Amino acid sequence: MSKLEIFRRAACVLSATLVFASAAQAEQRIVIKGSNTFGEELASALIDAYRKKNPDVSFELESKGSASGFQALLAGTCDIAASSRQPNEDEQRLARSRGVTINDDLIGYYGVAVIVNNANPIKALSDQQISDVFAGTITNWKQIGGEDGAIELYIRDPVSGTHLGFQELAMQRKPYAASAKMLTRYSEIIDAVRADRNGIGYSSMNLAEQNGIRAVDVNKVQPSAVAVNAGKYPFSRTLWLYTDKKRASTAAKEFIRFVRSRAGQRILEEHGFVRVFEERLWVPEM
Predict the structure, then answer these.
(1) 156 has pLDDT over 50
(2) Which CATH number fits domain 3-109+237-281: 3.40.50.2000, 1.10.1370.40, 3.40.190.10, 3.10.129.10?
(3) Distances from the Cα of 97 to the Cαs of 49, 101, 246, 281, in angstroms?
């Protein structure tokens, strides 16, 4: 074989290799499955921001609950499992049996503030009182130390993940009172409570500090980012992104790195979530 022929063949192999590498890079894809809390609005905002600097990365998002995320991660059908809880004993046992080492990354917190009209003298309630109020067991403010007046409930509609989220956090999954008025946005709940002296509702913590409304303390704990990070505020939950340590792609790791960066944490706060205070969280801007 002549040197020219060898050179031509080598050039063809190199060209094919470069084309393959370029195609592989262009086809980076991250599959995220799991938590509705993460997937409802927050995930899209994070993905949109990430893709502005990483347009060659595509995403597939499925939000059917934390359990579905762990199931997919252990089956190898997703890159990242989003969850508002840690894996339970059964999931950990299954991971060990399949040789999966689960890696966890704390990305923030989901917290809900209970709000009342600013003219309402009630400033604090217990978690049980709040549960009974929204379930309709307590129907008058005087039953919990307030003025005589029928309690008016304002809640999110069932389409919202917060509808179920509040039931899980504050009501032990009990059904809402039939009299509760369902609204589509936190802003609508805030407006309704502001206009109703006997109203009570809930919102993200960052929206609870507005004229005409007030967030109540729960179990003598004020709803705040500090209390959430300290694990003291009862109506909050952690948000995690889980990967299989052995098969986690570079693309998945880089996306998680972005979520945990200052830019990613700002997006969490903009969408009503609570950022992580740990200094070790911060990574350079991307």
Answers:
(1) yes
(2) 3.40.190.10
(3) 37, 10, 15, 31
